[in-house]
Amino acid sequence: MGARLNHGEDDLGETHEINVTPFIDVILVLLIIFMVAAPLATVDVPVDLPASTASPQPRPDKPLFLTVKADLSLALGEQTVARDGLASALDAASAQDRNKRIFLRADKAVAYGDLMEVMNALRDAGYLKVALVGLEAAPAAGAAQPSQAASQPVR
Prior knowledge:
By secondary structure, this protein is of the alpha/beta class.
C-alpha cells in the first residue's frame, strides 16, 4: 500500500520575486547609447584656447557657442557664419531670445581688437550676455596670492 504524506498540495507556490535581469539589460544598453552619443553633442571646432584660473561656472543644457578662429572667421556651434549674417544666425539659433547667454571662444592668435569687434557685433545684434570661454589652468606654484584689497572690484 502506498501512503501519501503531502496531503494533496501538489501545486507549485507562486514566487513573489521580481526578475531584474531584463531591467539591467535595458539600463546597460541605454548606458552604451549615452556613452556613444555624448561626445557627438559637443562643439568640435578646432581652436587653441588660452588658459584661465577662474573657477568654472555651471554649463547650461544647450549652450550657444560663438567661435573666433585664428583666421578671424566665425563659427556658431559648428557652422561657419559670415560677420554680416551673425545677427540673423544668432536669432535663428537662439529662437530670438536675446537674453540667452552667448559663450564666446577665441583662438590664442586672435588679437584683442578683433575679439572686441566680435563683441561689439554681438552687442549691436542685441545679445548683451556674453561669457568668455577658456581652458582651466592651475595657478602657478610660486605665484603670490593677490591681497584682499587687490581682489575687491573697483566701483
